[in-house]
Amino acid sequence: MIIILLFINLIVSLTFIWASDIESADLNGFKIIVTKAIDPEKCKSRANPGDVLYVHYTGSIDESSQTGVKGKVFDSSLRRSDPLDFKLGAGSVIKGLEEGIANACVGEKRTLIIPPEYGYGSNGAGKIIPGGATLRFDVELVSINIRPKRRHLYFSGSDNVFKEIDLDNDKLLVLPEVAEYLAKHFKIGPHISVPKIFSAEDENNDGVITFDEFKGTKGVVEEQDL
Ligand SMILES: [Ca+2]
Ligand SMILES: [Ca+2]
Q1: How many domains does the chain have?
Q2: Owning domain of residue 215
């Protein structure tokens, strides 16, 4: 009976994957949730096997995990400013990340719930990820096959540049705040255009850089951004 139920569950799961074009899948607890979709017309390229992907990620122990400290962040590329790069399909990262990011468009964000079989299995990894842990990865596909340019806003060395820029602490960055930050950390000369740097971060051009838009370091990703 249990086997039959599992089989039915598997069929339902697989049907769900096909039906939704893997935008939201659930296979034995492995979930792919698209949190920021890209309009198909604006999707210039998708992640295919063999591509080198540049991915920002924050990895934590999922709330559903049987082991480990729920919600504990174990690693984030945002703290280092530099996205992780890996060749898709080469097996250099955990299976959950490879399968979870496949077919994504540049700019797309996904939350991946990764059971141990798709993560670090029964052995775990390091001190924070015990064997049997279910992981949560919040990922953004930053670029495909092209190393993203480093931007001035990312590199004061702080692990929370966003907070450093946001002088009035309203979780929005405006041009004068960015100008003050740049003047503090860089010699402002003809090679630095403050409005240009600002608009590179202000994705929707509404004159403010939100926590979500900001690509530099911003400490632990806040709940509202997940
Ligand atoms: Ca502000
Ligand atoms: Ca904006």
Answers
A1: 2
A2: 161-224
